[in-house]
User: What shape does this take?
Amino acid sequence: MPINSERTINLKFDENLKAAVLTAITAAQEYGVKIFLIGGAVRDLILENPVKDIDITVEGNAADFANFLRDKYHCKIKSVQENLLTAKVQFESGAVIDFASTREEKYEKPGFLPEAFNFGCPLADDVKRRDFTINTLAIHLEDEKNLQLIDYCGGYNDILNKKIRILHNNSFVDDPSRIIRALKFKQRFNFEIEENTFNLMQKYLSGVNFQMPLERIKGELRQYFSLKNDNLYSLIINSKAYALISDNPIMNFNENLINELCKFDLFNADEIWFIYIAALIVNSDFAFERLNMTSFEKKVILEVRELLKKNKPDNTDDYEIYNIFNDLQDLSIAIYYAITENHAVKKFLTCLKEIKVLISGKDLIELGFIPSPYFNELFDLILREKLNGNLKTKEEEINYVKQYIKKEEQS
Ligand code: ATP
Assistant: This one.
């Protein structure tokens, strides 16, 4: 095992997670199986970043080991994935750890999910299926006082040199979602994509496999666009990674406007990612069909498309602005603004959106009217007056109706 002996690691976890790992170490010795902390948690420990979730890989059957933890160490099994022999286990401390059996993977169909085999293989074979060297590092959880770093692929030096490096030249062909993962790690850690990796990425992007399903790419884009960094969109454009999902992205999208839009309470923080995605796909039928969107997401994209088609100038009058935006999803309005910077949107959000007709059909009936489609005409007239600033209170609206009817009767 290529142990990096210069480097022993401290498990800087919160108390509950630390207690869970120590239990796992004791249990593994008793059960007689090798277990390893692996992937992102090891990378983050080296970078001295906080670690919240950890993955432990078991050189054996992780589902059986989870049963042992349940029977001997009062753990709860939260879920098991039978086909991959993985288990999510909650320890007495409350901490939850994902356990996976070591395995190998092969990609029969490029871009599709791989086929897993050789479960329980040596760690050295398991790491070969991973995305980047920085994510292949492992810590043998054996002796808590002497936790050593195991580095089969040179990941430790790549972390020190801030490099994102794939493990083999077919990596992006096998799984193009790794392109978005590379950009995610670049943004998150301010790392560079190593030259050969970058060239292979560009090569793939100039001939994307359009047969592949886009679920994983969408999932990775969601994580990527949920980062708090600047220039998220421009990196997707400049690196040409947009080609994975769209043949016609908006090129000059001003992503700084998203911060401004956050003030208007139009969307939750966990929807921000979709504003970026919308800018990538709104003009691409190809993406619309294939991105596996929810019905809400589809509705928003279609609304933004309609707005873009209308292409309203900024000097549209308030009544028209109100009617354009009033019935649309807030998220659609936000996206339209981020794409067009159309000032009518700002006017709608800051001045017009709150304006509502206060009287109801019931009030009109009390005034002696018989319900009819005429009610809507009256509401519309009142709305116009309100948008012009002429009516404020409900009483003023009622008086307006009375006077309007009087005039009508006289003419
Ligand atoms: P994060 O901090 O974003 O959770 P992570 O590295 O832990 O980072 P996960 O998505 O949780 O990311 O994946 C866990 C591990 O699984 C990774 O460290 C990597 O070794 C492996 N992995 C994840 N996605 C892929 C992929 N598409 N191809 C190959 N290996 C992957």
About this structure: The chain has three domains: 15-161, 211-352, 361-410. Residues 39-40, 55, 130-131, 135, 175, 177-178, 181 surround adenosine-5'-triphosphate (CB under 6 Å).
